[in-house]
Please model this.
Amino acid sequence: MLRVSNLFRIVLAVGLLALFGALSACGSTSTGSGSTPTAAPPVTLNVFAAASLTNAFKQVATKFQAAHPNVTVTYNFGGSQALAQQINQGAPADVFASANQKQMSVVIQGGEVDASTSKVFAQNLLVVITPKSDPGKINQLQDLAKPGLKIVLAAASVPAGQYAVDFLGKASADSSFGSSYKANVLKNVVSYETDVETVVSKVTLGEGDAGIVYVTDALANTSQLGEINIPANLQTEAVYPIAPIKGSKNAATAQQYVDYVLSSDGQAVMNSFGFLPPPSSTSFVAPTSIEAYLSRKR
Model:
C-alpha cells in the first residue's frame, strides 16, 4: 500500500511539472492582447550626402533617430559627383542628397533612383571667404583679381566649383568687374578641391587667401573666417535634391528619412544651419529676398 501511494505521488508530481511547463511555454509565445509587442528590428540607414550638408544632416540624424529608436543613420559625406559615381557602381546607399540636380540626374540615368521620387529640399548661396587675419587684404570682390593672391576653389566637377565659375563668368560681363575678371581670378587659383569642406579647411589654415563656398559653410566657421557677400545678380541657383535609392534593402526607412527632411521639422533644422527652403516654383529666390536673407543671417 505504501509503495502504491509513493508511486502515485511521484506520478502526480511529474504531471504537475509537465503541466506547468506547458502553460509557461504557452505564455511565452502568446500573441494575444496581453503579450509584449515585438521590438522593431534594428536598421542601419546609409545616407550619401553632399559635404556642405554635414552639419545640418548630423542634426537631422539626431532628431530622426529619436523618433525611430531602431534606426542608426550613417553618413557618407563628399563631393556630389564622387557620391553619384559610387552609387552607380553599386555602393550600398539607401538615400542620396546632392548639391545639384546634375548629379542626381547621373544616378537617375544610371537606374539607381526613380526620377519621380527626387525632391528639392533646400537651396544655398555662394560667398567669398578669407582667413580672419585677411593676409590678402581682400575688401571687395574685385580684389580677387589682384595678382599674387592664393585662391582655393572646389573643382569644376563639384557643384560648388561650377557655381563659382558661373559667378566669375557673370562678373566678367559686368562693367564694374571688367571682361578679364574671370581669367585674372583663375590665374590666382592654387588648388581645386574635391569638396567644399576642404576649401574651408585650407582657407582657415591660411593655405589660401580666399575661397568661394556656400553661405552655410561660412556660417559654420564665423569665428575663423571673414566673408564677402556675392550680390544676387551674380548668384547661381544652388538646389539640393534628395531621393531614396531604388535597390535599398531598407526602402521604407529610406522613404521615412526623405519625408522627414521635407517635413516642417526637417526644414526647421535646415533653416537653422542657413539653408534656404526649396523654391515654390521653378524660379529662384527673388534678389530682394536673397539680400534680406544674407542680412538676417549675419
